[in-house]
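FORM 12-B: Structure-to-Sequence Request
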């Protein structure tokens, strides 16, 4: 919970600082166009990757396999899409990293380690 509060305070402050800096360097209109462009591109890519992730989950369930890895991919795509829709450069970078499979692989060990630690402590809630 403390990480969530930290993220909700620190990330917007960093984003505002970078947006102000970019506005001074690039100009206001180019900065706004970049933000709009990444939002539109991100929404399109998130839709495409999201549909693929859903198909992968459905395929694994159809084949009577646990969709663990496919579910983690779907969560990354969802988080990446949300990040790309929010204005800012830092969230856009992480959003694009979460959308593409090769870079997503860098973050998966962190998520799996977090899940394992929660399961060991009995704190993971499964619905």
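FORM 12-B RESPONSE
SEQUENCE OUT:
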């Amino acid at each position: 919970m403390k990480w969530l509060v930290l993220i909700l305070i620190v990330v917007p402050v960093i984003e505002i600082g970078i947006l102000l800096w970019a506005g001074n360097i690039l100009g206001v209109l180019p900065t706004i166009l970049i933000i709009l462009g990444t939002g539109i591109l991100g929404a399109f890519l998130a839709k495409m990757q999201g549909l693929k992730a859903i198909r992968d989950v459905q395929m694994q369930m159809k084949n009577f396999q646990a969709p663990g890895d496919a579910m983690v991919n779907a969560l990354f795509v969802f988080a990446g899409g949300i990040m790309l829709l929010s204005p800012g450069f830092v969230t856009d970078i992480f959003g694009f990293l979460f959308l593409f499979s090769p870079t997503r692989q860098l973050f998966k060990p962190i998520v799996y380690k977090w899940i394992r630690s929660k399961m060991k402590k009995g704190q993971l809630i499964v619905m």
